[in-house]
Amino acid sequence: MSIRLRLTLWYSGILSVTLLLFGFGLYLFLSFYIYNDLEKQLGRTWTETYERIKPLAAPSIRGRVPIKLELDNVDMFSENTLLQLASLNDTEGPVIHDRSSVLKNLELTLPITNNAAQKLRGKDSLVVERLNLKVMDKSYPIILVSRGFDITDPVTGNKLTRGVLQVGATINYYENFFNLLQYTLAILAMLTVLIAGTLGWFLARKALRPIEQVIVATQQIEKGTDLDKRILYDGPEDEIGRLTVTINGMLGRLQLVYSELEEAYRAQRRFVSDASHELRTPLTTIRGNVELLEKMWSRTLTSGQAGGQDKEQMEMSIEAMQDIAGEAHRMSRLVNDMLSLARADAGFEMQRQPLELRPLVEEVARRAQFLPRQVQWEVGDLEPLTDVVVVGNKDYVQQLLFIFIENAFKYTEEGSVRLDALRSGDQVGLRIADTGIGMDKEEVPHIFDRFYRADVSRGRTAGTGLGLSIAKWIIDEHKGSIEVKTRQGEGSTFIIWLPVVFLPVS
Predict the structure, then answer these.
(1) How far apart (Å, rounded) are the C-alpha atoms in residues 359 and 373?
(2) DSSP letter string over 185-216?
């Protein structure tokens, strides 16, 4: 996950939590404030209504309350206000004395539960409830403030019973308001988070743009394509600004060091190339003279002109010259290989042209049978090469094949070495398979490194360790690839893949 995305998610997450807490707090505050204010208004209404209660004489021979209570001018309040005057009777429950016109018209009474009745019998009792009032199969939420008071005999002043004055108000409007507030806060919060996240994404992109420039510059440094590039930054001298200046300074030092290393590497390549050129002539001279002396002394021994001690010394000298010739030949191969790699390092581009592949491979197969070997040489199916044309250099393609064939002969003591061809799409493959010593899979990635030799014999088999490095260079120059299949003790298979070019028929 990128820093830009993480910053945007963190910012959006923090904003979401903040808005959630703000919306929840706002909802609770408004709910508490509005309902508390409504309860205070109902309390004031209760006080004003209580002052308008008129007790009327209503004697009864059945033991009921001898006083009848009546509300005076209750319609002065809002139509939304519900008023009810009752008294508490221990035997028969609450007795309703009077109601506001709204309740009378709807033929409704406000409920007094047993729990509320017990509280209302206490001194200075006050009960605040939220109830649902059912009207014609519909339910309406209300807030109900109930408070008890003593009913006394207006003549004697003795307490007769306990009265209850209830003041209520419907809160449909408030409930609808808070429902709408919930949806509004939720929608606004989502829109705010979405807008803030989008803006945060673009702001993070703008803030992190210098870092993206740092990444691009370092990638170019990694590829070694442009060491002169510097990070362009025209922003404030903040953390990113200081980081940019530091990296630009580091890039300058890297460029200086890389230039020095490149110059040293060029000097080394020139030395190897010049030394290889200079060594080829004396080595050729040494080999020629040694071979000449070997022929002359061999002829002398054959003719019988030397005898006794001279013959023995000449035989020893011939053996010494054969050793010198062998080492000179090995040094010549090493010098030629080093010269080829020096050309590759110097950026030498071989001349390539359309090349018919089958005649070239058949020629290599014919000449390969004369190479030093201990195993059978087999040429398999070359039919996939018929009419196949590649863009390449004839000499280097031949050298490429001989490198793999000679390696196969070198590391195969019994069995066979086989050459055949195969096709896959627009690629043609040249397969060299042997039954030799093979390799461990851990060694395969290193076999194309210079001077690396994977064989366990190492010192027993002649070689410079540069052949496969040269082969890899030739394959790369021909835009091809190499496939290696090997197993320890079972042999190795190398498949050289080259792109096929189809020339128009004239």
Answers:
(1) 23
(2) HHHHHHHHHHHHHHHHHHHHHHHHHHHHHHHH
Q: Is the pTM of this model over 0.90?
A: no
Position 11 scores a pLDDT of: 79
The residues facing 353 across adjacent strands are 392
Name 421's Cβ contacts closer than 8 Å, sequence gap at least 6.
361, 380, 381, 382, 383, 384, 385, 428, 429, 430, 431
Structure-token match 């002394």, residue found: 297
Average pLDDT rounded to a whole number, residues 144-149: 87
* Cβ neighbours of 319 (radius 10 Å): 11
pLDDT in tens, 389-426: 999 988 889 888 998 998 899 888 889 999 999 998 88
Q: Tell me the C-alpha to C-alpha distance, in Å, between residue 424 and each of 81, 429, 479, 495, 496.
A: 93, 8, 16, 12, 12
SS3 assignment, position 460: coil
Please state the length of the chain. 506
Q: Which two tokens stand for residue 329?
A: 């030949």
Model confidence band, residue 114 (pLDDT cutoffs 50, 70, 90): confident
Rounded (5°) CA angle 302-306-312:
95
Ordered by where they begin, the domains of the chain are: 52-170 (3.30.450), 227-348 (1.10.287), 353-499 (3.30.565.10)
Cβ distance 404 to 471 under 8 Å?
yes
Which class for 505: exposed (0-12), middle (13-18), buried (19 or more C-beta within 10 A)? Answer: exposed
Run of H or E residues at 506: none
374-391 tens-digit pLDDT = 899 999 999 999 889 999
Compute the distance between CA of residue 309 and CA of residue 363 in angstroms, rounded to an integer.
49
pLDDT bracket for residue 373 (50, 70, 90): confident
Whose CA is closest to 65, among 38, 40, 39, 94? 94
Residue 330 to residue 352: CA distance in whole angstroms: 29
